[in-house]
Write a structure and sequence with these properties.
The protein is an all-alpha fold. Helices cover 63% and strands 0% of the residues. Pfam families: UPF0193.
Length: 241
Amino acid sequence: MEGERDSPAGTSSGVLENAWKQFGRDNPAGKALFKLYNKDVTKQIGNAYHSKNKQAHDKKLATGWTPPPVAEPPKPKLERPQVEVPKFPLKRIEYDNLGAARVDLIPRRRPLEVIRREIDAEYERMRAAPQPPPNRPLLDEREKARLAELMRFRGKLPAITPEQQAEMSKAVPRKSQRQQLEELFSAIMGEIEERRQFLRDLEAAGRLPLETVYMIRSEIQDRVTELQRVDVLLKQQAGEL
């Protein structure tokens, strides 16, 4: 019963394995059937050939046959290349017997003396040749002065030169010594009043540390001393002392 059951399955499997032959492998349907039912065909064929060859080889070995040894190819012998170099006889030149320097034996187109004479002649010809006339007007005194100023200030002329600045300072009337003392007296008074106002502002704000009071009072005292000295000078100018 089991054989009868298995035979249709085996027959159907064999039919399916050969189904690709109905289509051929040159179309998508035949390729798909071959991949689906004949995955190991190539492997099975290779194994069959391998088993057949192995059995034949084992039979030959059983008869006493041995495979011939494989001879290794001979290694090439390395030889050093022979290079032939031409040899020329050396000829030594006795310079002492020639009566000339070695540099004189170098072949030239013209001797040194000829070249020097040509250079001297060219120099004399250039000196004797007339000078070409100028192609632009000659520099006058005004242009020379302008170029001198450019060289003096390195190409950038200032808006006011030092000489002009000196002339302008001379034109401004200078203050007398009494006027200078009066301006100094007013400036010192302003500094003293400024420091007193600073102390009043700190006291009104409630932030008057003792160190600041000592420092500001010391500065005020210094300026009072200087103010007294200026006052003495003013009185001397007025002729009161």
